[in-house]
Amino acid sequence: MTTRGFLEADFEKVADWCIKAIKISVRLQEKAGKQLVNFLAALKEDEEIRIVSEEVKAFSRQFSMPGL
User: Fold this and answer.
1) pTM score of the predicted model
2) Distance CA 36, CA 65 (A)
3) Cβ contact 6:63 at 8 Å
4) Which of 13, 16, 49, 63 is placed for a possible disulfide with 4 were both Cys, Cβ 3.0 to 4.6 Å?
5) Is residue 68 part of a domain?
6) Considering the domain boundaries, does residue 66 fall inside one?
7) 67 domain-assigned
8) How confident is the model at residue 36, as a pLDDT?
9) How many domains, the chain?
10) Runs of H (alpha helix) within 1-68
11) How many CB atoms lie within 10 A of CB 42?
12) Rounded alpha-carbon distances, angstroms, from residue 43 to 1, 10, 12, 64
């Protein structure tokens, strides 16, 4: 990620999103159970994961991809 120009603060944001994703995953697994098919269905319907996904996409657009 440093090749894309990330600074220390950017890595902190990425870490925060990773933590959020883990917490969302734990919550969804508690709700949906252990079967992957049920987890994936719950993931598609979850508003919080959609918001995090949009935040990550918007953030990543700020950085160019090396070689492109």
Assistant:
1) 0.82
2) 32
3) yes
4) 63
5) no
6) no
7) no
8) 96
9) 1
10) 8-32, 36-45, 47-60
11) 19
12) 26, 26, 24, 29
Report the distance separating Cα 16 and Cα 59, nearest Å.
13
Which residue in this structure is represented by tokens 């269905």? 41
Give tens-digit pLDDT for 15-52: 999 999 999 999 999 999 999 999 999 999 999 999 99
Residue from 5, 23, 4, 26 nearest 15 by CA: 23
The answer to whether 17 and 56 are in contact (CB under 8 A) is: yes
Residue labelled with tokens 């070689």: 67
Quick check: is 43 in a domain? yes
Helix or strand holding residue 35 (H, E): none
Query: Please, are residues 43 and 49 in contact by the beta-carbon 8 Å criterion?
Result: yes
